[in-house]
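Input (structure):
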């Protein structure tokens, strides 16, 4: 190619790496003896510059001749620009074709400087040389550190000499394309240029044997180093020849001095194949032919999108292939099959043919017909014949069913079932019927002929089920008046049967139902029926006139007539004695009937059962139901006897020994009570308050019940109950009380009778108290009753004053004699959530008293914030108060989650909205000046659901900042679960910035997410200058600059820690100062005995590492296993190891893969291994630099773990 006359300018990107090192008084190794105590500044150009920065087509053509460095005072430069006074300047030559050396300056400290570096060189091609220039400016602060510590990009201009013509030689033009002769060609040159996308220069039509094509340039300013050449072939009429066989051809040329280009035309191979059609279940076979117009050998003939079951067999020279396929019945439809051919000269072509598979219908099949065997069916007259056609269709078509033939009209149809009941007739001579059953899928029909034989019915009906039941209510013994029900299920439909039971005609219940199979008959037991078996007889006849008679002698159990009197299920007993002249009695029997009673005075002879019945006093009784009986006109003050007897509805009366007696006295005076106690009565009914004060001792020598009926009995006399007997004091009505000075000795029982009364007379407490402290309550109780008793005194609390005392705080048992009083001390432990005032209640069984106590709230659950008594945190409210006590000590005593008190106030509401105007949790501390400065002991507890959304704020996390450069802040023993953190610069789940110490802290849960919208984003800490030990992070981490799974950027130490987080670098990731790593984005200090297993993802990024993105410190005894995105300086362990970086004993997964993307310094004992070499026992031998005795451990089929895990 010739280039002249026209100026062509090409802009190339060259990376100039500037490294500045500050030297202090104690760094004498870097000092010039003549310049002691000053700042040393180095400028170093690395040899890898051309591979990174220059277009591959000319990278070896650039020579760097020199670099000139000028330094200005920043204050002067800001005012005067490049007219400012130059403090220092120096020019150094390049050391080789694409490297420069080190330029050192020594500057006075305590000044800010502007550095200007000017790169000079040239680009040479075929003896022609053009110049290369580029400039970089940066600011050096008074400590000798660049404001932006990163390599810088310098734009370099490469200028060619003027040119007016470009020559391209075209070779290998074919004489024909298919059947068309090639007559001429046109050549087109497409050149990117300034201001337009493409400038196209086209040649005139040229002879195919011309060889060289010349283009004229129109004074273009170019923006690329190459251009695209395309060739078009024409026929004799000047028409373009389609290129489906010849194909596109052309190539790329360089736009540099003295550069030329040759292009060779190659025609594509082609295929011959046509569309095909075939039926289901039929074989299709056809041939595909291939040919190359240039005679090149064919290297491949293949097929894609091949239907299931098809095969393709190419010939040995790939000039033809046989396609064979028998589609199944399920493969109807259209199939596009693509055949491809490749030639030895790189030609490729393909053709797609369409194979149409026609749908072939399959006729349905009749699998079986119910009640049909070998085409025949037999049925008895009067019985139903059902013909259910069971058919299948392999195509899944809907089926229709039809019956035809001579006798088809006799049948009714329901879906696939045809039914017929032959009428009762004489079938002895003509009993065969013919029908045809048809099944159709709408296209094809399948039939089955059936011959039906009808037999005459000569079989009498039989009873398949014959049972007898009774409606009586006493153990299935039938008695006079009970109804016996006979149930008959016949083997076939019968006409109304006739039935007799015990010689009498039974009633037919369903007499109106003709021709039924199930019948019921009732018989009512007569009083004269004998005890024993009840016989019955049933006569049945079917529609054909066949009859049978059934009897009870073998099929029905005997039914016994009831002759047993009822039994008492509740013995007659006194329930009430409301006044002196009446009494209430309760009783029950086991069957219905009548109870009779007779009232007699004490001493009268006991009556017989009949005598009680004859007294004429009666009540109706229901079976097993207690009956309340009120008896009036009782004699008060004298002993009474009431006798009871029962009879059932069948007339069975209880015997004399079943007569029951109630013996009692009704009293309303103490004098009569004394008589009753000393007499023989067994029940005393007290109908009003009584006092017994005779001065005597009363003896009770029998079981005696005194029913107080809610009255008070004042007993001033003593009562002695003899051995073996019991005095029972009872009352069904509340309020009954036993008082007085008398004493009862011997057997005594009390039921609902008050003998003592515990009255709460006062209640006092020591409030107000602080939340979390005990409230002491004094309750004074007096026994206002007469007898000694024991009761519980209970302290209950209503802690939100809603009227419900639902907290039972304390209980104490108290024993008091009559008239005695005591005070008991009870305690309520106040709790978080108590109102500022609570109601307390002191209670006995008899009464209660309440009071109100004030509760003073506390910021914490306990403690005073000292190291010996740290503040206790048990909810989100307490956690939020840490920000008000930044120098104090804290301990977490409870797991916190979304259900813990305060979450809705400090993180997220019940409806899912973030608090603080949608920002969520407010990080504790603000920055370096307002930082957490105490100790936070997580105590092995967890905090779950922490959510923050502050993308425009810096220093974001649970803590904004932990410690300071001179502080001793300490966060340890804490796990955060399921975090969702979004922040700006310096964002980490635990702390945005860490200056001091973090130990045994973890971010857990695959759903945990940390996103930084600026610089320094880490799963645990965004920006670290302290010490992090035995800590970890999981989930995902996203950021723009300096992103790491555990820490975004670290100027401190990281020891025995790991990350499994998925790391993503977003934003302008192509900035060469950036860094993204599985554990740390950028490290300037030390990382030891740590690892990362998470993947690292970055698009078009720089400095990406499985463990560390950029390392300027010490990395030792580490490994990484995650996948790492490709990019500039991408390494499975470290992206870029800078001049001050040292890496020792490092391993990564990926044998043969790059461990360090760009290594500028020392890297010792680093290697890539396979997965199996890094897992189980193999790890110990293959990763021998790790201490598997004290620090690391191996697990089967797993990567090494730290022993603390």
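Output (sequence):
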């Amino acid at each position: 190619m010739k280039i002249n006359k026209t100026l062509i300018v090409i802009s190339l990107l060259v990376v100039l790496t500037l490294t500045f090192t500050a030297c202090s008084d104690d760094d004498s190794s870097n000092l010039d003896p003549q310049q002691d105590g000053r700042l040393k500044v180095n400028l170093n150009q690395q040899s890898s510059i051309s591979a990174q920065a220059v277009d591959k087509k000319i990278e070896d053509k650039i020579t760097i001749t020199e670099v000139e460095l000028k330094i200005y005072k920043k204050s002067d430069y800001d005012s005067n620009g490049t007219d400012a006074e130059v403090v220092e300047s120096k020019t150094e030559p390049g050391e080789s074709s694409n490297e420069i050396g080190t330029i050192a300056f020594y500057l006075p400290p305590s000044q800010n400087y502007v550095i200007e570096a000017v790169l000079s060189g040239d680009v040479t091609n075929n003896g022609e040389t053009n110049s290369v220039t580029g400039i970089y400016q940066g600011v050096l602060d008074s400590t000798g550190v660049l404001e932006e510590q990163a390599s810088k990009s310098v734009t370099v201009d490469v200028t060619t000499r003027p040119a007016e013509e470009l020559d391209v030689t075209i070779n290998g033009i074919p004489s024909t394309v298919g059947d068309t002769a090639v007559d001429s060609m046109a050549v087109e040159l497409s050149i990117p240029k300034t201001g337009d996308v493409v400038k196209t220069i086209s040649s005139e039509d040229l002879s195919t044997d011309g060889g060289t094509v010349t283009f004229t340039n129109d004074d273009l300013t170019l923006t690329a180093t190459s251009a695209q050449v395309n060739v078009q072939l024409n026929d004799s009429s000047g028409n373009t020849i389609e290129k489906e066989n010849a194909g596109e051809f052309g190539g790329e040329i360089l736009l540099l001095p003295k550069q030329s280009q040759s292009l060779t035309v190659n025609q594509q191979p082609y295929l011959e194949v046509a569309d095909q059609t075939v039926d289901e279940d039929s074989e299709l076979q056809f041939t595909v032919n291939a040919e190359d117009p240039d005679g090149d050998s064919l290297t491949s003939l293949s097929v894609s999108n091949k239907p299931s079951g098809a095969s393709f067999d190419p010939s040995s020279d790939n000039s033809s292939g046989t396609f064979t396929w028998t589609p199944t019945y399920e493969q109807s439809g259209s199939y596009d099959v693509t055949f491809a051919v490749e030639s030895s000269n790189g030609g490729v072509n393909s053709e797609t043919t369409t194979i149409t598979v026609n749908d072939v219908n399959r006729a349905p099949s009749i699998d079986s017909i119910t009640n049909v065997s070998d085409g025949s069916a037999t049925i008895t007259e009067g019985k139903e014949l059902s013909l259910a056609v069971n058919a299948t269709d392999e195509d899944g078509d809907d089926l229709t069913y039809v019956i035809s033939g001579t006798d088809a009209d006799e049948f009714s149809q329901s879906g696939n079932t045809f039914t017929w009941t032959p009428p009762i007739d004489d079938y002895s001579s003509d009993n065969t019927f013919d029908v045809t059953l048809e099944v159709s899928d709408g296209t094809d029909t399948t039939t089955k002929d059936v011959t039906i034989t009808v037999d005459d019915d000569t079989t009498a009906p039989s009873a398949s089920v014959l049972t007898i039941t009774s409606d009586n209510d006493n153990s299935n013994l039938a008695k006079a008046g009970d109804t016996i029900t006979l149930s008959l299920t016949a083997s076939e439909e019968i006409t109304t049967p006739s039935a007799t039971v015990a010689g009498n005609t039974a009633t037919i219940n369903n007499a109106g139902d003709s021709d039924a199979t199930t019948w019921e008959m009732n018989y009512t037991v007569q009083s004269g029926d004998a005890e024993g078996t009840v016989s019955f007889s049933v006569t049945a006849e079917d529609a054909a006139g066949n009859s049978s008679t059934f009897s009870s002698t073998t099929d029905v159990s005997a039914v016994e007539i009831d002759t047993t009197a009822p039994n008492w299920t509740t013995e007659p007993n006194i329930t009430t004695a409301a006044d002196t002249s009446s009494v209430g009695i309760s009783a029950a029997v086991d069957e219905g009937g009548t109870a009779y009673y007779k009232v007699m005075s004490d001493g009268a002879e006991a009556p017989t059962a009949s005598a009680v019945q004859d007294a004429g006093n009666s009540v109706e009784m229901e079976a097993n139901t207690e009956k309340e009986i009120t008896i009036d006109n009782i004699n008060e003050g004298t002993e009474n006897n009431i006798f009871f007897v029962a009879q059932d509805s069948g007339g069975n009366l209880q015997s004399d020994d079943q007569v029951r007696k109630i013996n009692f006295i009704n009293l309303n005076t103490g004098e009569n009570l004394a008589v009753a106690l000393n007499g023989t009565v067994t029940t005393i009914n007290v109908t009003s308050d009584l006092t017994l004060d005779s001065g005597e001792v009363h003896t009770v020598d029998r079981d005696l019940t005194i029913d107080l009926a809610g009255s008070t009995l004042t007993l001033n006399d003593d009562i002695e109950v003899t051995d073996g007997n019991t005095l029972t004091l009872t009352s069904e009505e509340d309020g009954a009380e036993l008082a007085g000075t008398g004493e009862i000795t011997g057997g005594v029982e009390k039921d609902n009778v008050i003998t003592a009364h515990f009255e709460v007379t006062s209640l006092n407490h020591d409030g107000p108290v602080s939340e979390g402290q005990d409230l002491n309550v004094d309750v004074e109780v007096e026994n206002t009753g007469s007898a000694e008793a024991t009761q519980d005194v209970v302290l209950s609390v209503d802690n939100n004053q809603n009227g419900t005392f639902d907290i039972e705080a304390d209980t104490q048992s108290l024993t008091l004699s009559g008239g005695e009083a005591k005070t008991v001390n009870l305690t309520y432990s106040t709790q978080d959530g108590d109102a500022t005032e609570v109601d307390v209640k002191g209670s006995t069984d008899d009464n209660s008293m309440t009071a109100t106590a004030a509760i003073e709230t506390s910021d914490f659950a306990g403690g005073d914030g000292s190291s010996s008594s740290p503040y206790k945190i048990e909810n989100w409210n307490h956690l939020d108060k840490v920000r008000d006590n930044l120098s104090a000590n804290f301990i977490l005593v409870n797991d916190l989650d979304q259900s813990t008190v305060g979450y809705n106030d400090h993180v997220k509401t019940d409806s899912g909205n973030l608090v603080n105007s949608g920002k969520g949790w407010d990080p504790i501390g603000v920055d370096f000046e307002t930082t957490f400065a105490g100790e936070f002991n997580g105590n092995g507890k967890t905090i779950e659901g922490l959510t923050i959304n502050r993308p425009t704020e810096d220093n974001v996390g649970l803590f904004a900042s932990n410690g300071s450069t001179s502080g001793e802040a300490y966060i340890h023993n804490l796990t955060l679960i399921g975090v969702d953190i979004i922040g700006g610069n310096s964002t980490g789940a635990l702390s945005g910035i860490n200056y001091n110490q973090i130990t045994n802290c973890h971010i857990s849960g695959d759903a945990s997410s940390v996103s930084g919208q600026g610089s320094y984003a880490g799963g645990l800490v965004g920006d670290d200058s302290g010490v992090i030990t035995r800590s970890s992070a999981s989930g995902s981490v996203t950021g723009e600059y300096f992103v790491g799974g555990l820490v975004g950027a670290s100027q401190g130490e990281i020891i025995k820690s790991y990350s499994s987080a998925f790391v993503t670098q977003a934003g302008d990731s192509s900035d060469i100062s950036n860094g993204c790593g599985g554990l740390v984005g950028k490290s300037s200090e030390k990382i030891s005995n740590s690892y990362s297993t998470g993947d690292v993802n970055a698009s078009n990024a720089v400095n990406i590492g499985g463990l560390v993105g950029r390392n300027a410190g010490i990395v030792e005894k580490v490994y990484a296993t995650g996948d790492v995105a490709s990019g500039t300086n991408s390494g499975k362990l470290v992206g870029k190891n800078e001049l001050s970086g040292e890496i020792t004993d490092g391993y990564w997964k990926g044998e043969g893969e790059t461990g360090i993307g760009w290594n500028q310094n020392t890297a010792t004992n680093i290697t890539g291994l396979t997965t199996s070499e890094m897992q189980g026992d193999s790890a110990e031998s293959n990763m021998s630099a790790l201490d598997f005795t004290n620090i690391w451990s191996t697990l089967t089929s797993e990567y090494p773990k730290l022993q603390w895990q």
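Notes: The first strand starts at residue 9 and ends at 16. The chain has eight helices and 102 strands.
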